[in-house]
């Protein structure tokens, strides 16, 4: 069977990812949704197919903090699909206390950065053969408050931290998302594959509600433009995936945070040497050949 357009969305069984998948289904894509739970994946697949008669949705299981599971996911995607038009790296976590991944990395860095980095690299061949194709990376304005050092050797090293310290580690992962997007865009120049990062703004999802302070503020914020619904948070990601206006745009960071577009770029996002160093170190940690 030949499918016209195919997309894969990680973290697609709830929140923003689910709304991104819903938008792609409505636009006529066959969509592969990636999640960590079989029941939730099956429920999401059934829900999206019921909303759009004739839609095709496939469910994949993977924990993006595990290199082995990411490799298994990439293999399953390549086996099932003959093409890939859109890849949305949406899955992410904010751990309020330090956790260690199965591979010995900080779990937040492994899930939010190393997993998407590895998955994207493993699917680049399929994306290039399907060009024009698009990659969307869900980042955050939180990248402005980060603890990434110029010496990136320890970018995924586990360390002890609590709720306050977790904010800077989360910011590190979101900065890594943007640096990855920028470097990948440069490496993909001329291939017909574009990649862009997006901040969905503050969205009322499970990730937001993990913060005790956020739980107190959410009722008040819900009455302002600051707090967005998952559907609103998905809009810019869907534009980057679908809008012809972004068909040849690559390496950008688009913020949906009110006023975010008026802020100057963070200094580290203008550091070409840093983004190359991040790429090389991430390749080592992900078990990819240096290139």
TrEMBL record:
Keyword terms, alphabetized: Oxidoreductase
Domain of life: Bacteria
InterPro entries: NAD(P)-bd_dom_sf, SDR_fam
Gene3D superfamilies in alphabetical order: NAD(P)-binding Rossmann-like Domain (3.40.50.720)
Family named by the database record: Belongs to the short-chain dehydrogenases/reductases (SDR) family.
This protein's name: SDR family NAD(P)-dependent oxidoreductase
Organism the protein comes from: Actinomadura parmotrematis
Taxonomic lineage: Bacteria, Bacillati, Actinomycetota, Actinomycetes, Streptosporangiales
